[in-house]
Design a protein that fits this description.
single chain; alpha+beta; Chitobiase, domain 2; Protein Transport Mog1p, Chain A
Length: about 350
Amino acid sequence: MTALPSLLRRLLPALLLTTVAAACGKPQPLGDANAIIAAVPDETWAQVEQDVYAALEPRAFTVRDERIFRVTQVDPASQQWNDLRRFRQILLIGEPGDPTVAEALEQVDRPHPAPPTVVRARNVWAQGQQVTVALLPPGSRPEAAQPLLAVIGETLRSQYENLARQRMFVTGADSALADSLRRSAGFSLLVPQVYRFSQPESNVYLFRNDQPDPSRLIRSVLVAWRPAGEVTPTQESALAWREQIGERFYEPPQVTETERIESRELGTPERGGMQIQGVWSNPPGGWPAGGPFIARIVPCPEQQRVYLLDGWIYAPGTEKYEYMVQLNTIMDSFRCANAVQ
């Protein structure tokens, strides 16, 4: 069996020293929400490994194609499993009679369909833990898990994105600011209360969260508008508008790298709209910094305006998908007001 990834090697000493237990007597879970321990026998893993990775390690473009989940396999018969079973996310593949699967099924307090099916159990080996079982019929081959893994992958991704949104709004949503913007600026945007708001120009609005340490994490969203006839929603116009914004309103200034730009249309064909996603960096000669951005051009014909929404992240050395979900959630909350006051 291959050596444990460095993340698990770092976490194992802390895991072994964990003595804090919940009221039920089970320890608190370890590991991030996107770290999955696949408790699968080695002989089964040899047959399902590629299917597991395909379903549970999708990539998302941030500054590169980043894994959303990190899967680590361990044989339930090994000593390593006795330690790693405390992780927050566990995947099991097997039949109802398999010892590890049976132990998880004992914690399910409701009937489940006959296999093949997906069963979820909580708090099996740790408090707050989620165990997902690809439950196979007795005597079936491991390949029978493939369609179940596709369902598991989609479900875990949805759960992880919902968790990212919950974490973002743990301080509460600033609905008062959204209402104020609707009345005075002609649009609304829902951001967490921890975001700071400023208006450097009459048609430019900045929302920024650089807590607790701007050298490690910054999340920023800008909203600007122009008269409708000045901008057409295209990739080229979005890039040009963002370039002007980055030079004038970001400190330090930003430039947009053009080696990889992903774009898609927004809204209905009648209304139009465009989103681009790529990577920003500091200008040459400056401090070497960069990160992902999302920019949207949103027409509001009832106002005779076109809006630019530009969100970016600075999170060096950190997985960024969770923050991309948060940026998209803020941008999705954008609404044109019925009239400009």
